[in-house]
Every structure is written in C-alpha cells, then in structure tokens.
Amino acid sequence: MTVHFIGAGPGAADLITVRGLNLLRQCQVVLYAGSLVPVDIAAEGGARCIDTSALTLNDIIAIMVEAHARGEDVARLHSGDPSLYGAIAEQIRRLEALAIPYTVTPGVPAFAAAAAALLTELTLPGVSQTVILTRTAVRTAPMPPGEDLATLGQGRATLAIHLSINNLTAVVRDLTPLYSADCPVAVVYRASWPDQHILRGTLADIRDQVKAAGFTRTALILVGRTLEARDFPDSHLYAPGHSHCMRPTNDTIEKRERQKGETAHENAQFSQNTSDRDNRLPGGWQDDGDSSPA
Question: What are the extents of the domains in the chain?
C-alpha cells in the first residue's frame, strides 16, 4: 500500500499529468480538497472519493492509516503542484513516523497556468530573468524574516503572489515605491477553470478592478514589467551568430575540423614514436624478427 501525493494541476481536468492520471486510476481511495480540485478529476478512476475540505490533518492521516490496514493505495490530490503551498510536508512527516510508504508526483502550478492564460512569458531578456513565487502574511501564516514584499521586491523581479488577493492593499502599498505605480499587474481568477477571469492593470488601479469584480479567493497576482514589455532584445539562443552543441556556426565547424586534423596528426606521431621505441630492445638489441644481435 502506498500514499501517492499527486499534483492535480490548476483546475482544468485535462491539465493533470499522464503519470498523475495513471496513478489516480490505480488507487482505491482518493482524498481531495473539493474547493480546489474538480470532482471530475477525483472520480476519474472510480475509487472511493473523500472531500477533505472540512477535515483536520488528524482526520486525513486516520483515513490513510485505515486504507493502509486494508492494503489500499491512496491518491492524495493537491491543487497545482504539491511542492508549492501544498502542506504535504506535515502529512509526509506523519507517514514516515508510521512507516507508510509514499510518492510525490508533480503537477502544473497555478502561476504557469496564469501565464498561459495571459499568453505571456514571465522572463524576458533585458527585462527580468527571475520569477519569485511568494505569498503575503496573514493571521494564520506569518512570513519568515526577510521574505516580505518590501524586501523581495528590491530586485524588481517578476512576482507571482499566491494566496494574497484579500491582502491586495498591502501588496500595492509595499510594491509601489519599488516598481512604481505604472508597473503592470495581472490578476488571474481560477486559472484554467471554466469560469477563469483575467484582470489587467497597474499597481495604481488594480485594487479598484479587483473590488469591482468581487474576487476574494483563488486568484493569483502577477507583478512585473514582463507582463506588458514589447521592446526587448531577442535571446541569444536562436541568434544566427550564436553557436552551441546542437547548432554550431560555420566558424565553429571549421575550428572543430582543424582541431580534429591536429589531433589526428598528434595521434599518428605518437603512434610512430611508440612503435619506434617498442622496436628497440635493451642492451642495443633491435627486434628485426631474429633473436641474434644486430
């Protein structure tokens, strides 16, 4: 019996990975958060499905222990990717203490689904080459020292801010001095779900847009110049003059051929020297196919 922590993806049923779906179909018990994971995904394999939205950690572990005693595999479905705000570490800690085996299968994270919905790239040459995944402090989850937005935003990297739509006023307050009021912002509500909704604006006006839309949960905030950048240089990766192991330039090919020729010449010279040396025997004898002295 094994507990499989599976990333269910951001919401759309067809965004679960092939591996995740195959594992799900093999399990007899499925635990999922009904508020974040569509029931169509949970019910895919015909297993006994349990919505964990109203359960405590102790309740969830108890179900896993009971399944273990019956020899049943458990699929623990987490929205997005389980490594990000999935709370799997505390479950894993309990399973290890109970000697119950487990696996972890990645899923499509919400920030990737949001970027796809925006038809944008979060890293652009000369604009931003860094994406910071973070959240803001709330009553039940304070942030460690140095992980506040005022600190993280000093490099002006692209920010993907999770679980913070109700804290948008603080987000705008902390980031405006660093990014400026005209910095592009996008809020993606329920990325990839049928009722997905996108708001685009700036730090100056995004609060009013979100308030008017009535978003209070399951919305991701993206902040950064990459969201609207149009004037940026092409990457070197596909530049005609840039060579790499899969696409050498003519100059690189010629250089490699010269090096091959030089290496072949050196190898031939080495072989000749070795042959001459091996044909000379100690004491002035020379091997000419006869054992008599030269």
Answer: 3-108, 111-227
User: Which CATH fold topology does 111-227 show?
Assistant: 3.30.950
Structure tokens at 74: 């458990």
DSSP state of 37: S
Strand 3-7 to 74-78 pairing? parallel
- Residue 45 carries which DSSP code? T
DSSP label of 282: G
* pLDDT tens track for 6-59: 999 999 999 999 999 999 999 999 999 998 998 888 888 789 999 999 999 999
Closest of 199, 192, 182, 183 to residue 109, by C-alpha: 192
Best CATH choice for the domain 3-108 from the list 3.30.70.3270, 3.40.50.300, 3.10.290.30, 3.40.1010.10: 3.40.1010.10
End-to-end CA distance of the chain: 80
Can 3-108 and 111-227 be said to share one CATH topology?
A: no
Chain centre distance of CA 32: 22
Q: CA-to-CA distance for 75 and 22, rounded, in angstroms?
A: 11
- Residue 257, both tokens: 């051929």
Give pTM, 2 decimals: 0.80
Residue 217, class by beta-carbon neighbours within 10 Å (0-12 exposed, 13-18 middle, 19+ buried)? exposed
